[in-house]
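>> received
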Amino acid sequence: MNILAFESTCDETAAAVVQDGRKVLSDAIASQVDMHTIYGGVVPEIASRKHVEAIAGLADKALSDAELTKTDIDAVAVSYAPGLIGAVLVGVNFAKSVALALGVPLIPVHHIRGHIAANYIAHPELEPPFVCLCMSGGNTLIADVRSYTDMEVMGATRDDAAGECFDKAARVLGIGYPGGGPMDQLAQQSKGGVYQLPKAHVDGAELDMSFSGLKTAVVNLAHHAQQTGEKLDEAALARDFTQAVSDELVPRAMKAAREKGYRKLVAAGGVAANSIIRADLERECTHSGIQLYLPPLSLCGDNGAMVGAQGYYEYLDSHTAGSDLNAYATRDLGRG
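>> returned
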């Protein structure tokens, strides 16, 4: 089954062709990073306009790269939630028109489910059930993936997403946007242990997280150094900040896996590219005898292939939509 898939929930426009949920025939991505770097973050209106400009050409490129024609497409999948509502609408409306024109089923895909499914592409042997640590610029949560389409949130951030905090910390340190890569590189230059940063605890919800206090602490440290003329050890701060984020994520993911009795732990999303967090996950899983599945760096960020992969399993479970499909800025993972 060949699925033409679209992703436009934030600042990457993507189109891909995926065969039977596991084989990527093509994956075309148009990044807007250079545009949004000027503003230090994603400008929603600009993102939406850029999606409009790019998506038709990317659809043609995805078909060409896959060496297929429109008649070879069996279904169309699209990320319909969550995300920047204007950006999501572009992908949803374009996908609806393509499905209608081709006379094929339209498959709505939850963006986070797509990130989880990126691991099916990277690890053909991977099957549910497992616990997944989902961490990106817009969402941070721990999911019980009971089947390909049956999922439940076990814990989530109460405020900022982990990826958003990396972006804000990088901005205050003046090392660019998006912040994940530059922060990772800077953190590698220090062993840390210089700055005491806060750790959050949510009473009655041991798997829930909070990152706003950590973000504020980094901002305050940077501003204090600027105002007093004190030298800020930026590399140490990047390292201590990254370790603080990892200390929020990794122990909770391990706890969730133990609670469920699963021997498989999966990571997903843009923050899964961070080398320190990956190393911490690998160490803890090895110590606990849990099999860890990490997506390759190329599949950590937003892409169309992950949407096509999850779309296949949604289709098998009869999760299709009509021309009344809407876009949503927020959507519970369990509702698909």
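>> The beta strands are 2-7, 12-19, 23-31, 75-81, 106-110, 130-135, 140-145, 151-156, 264-268, 291-293.
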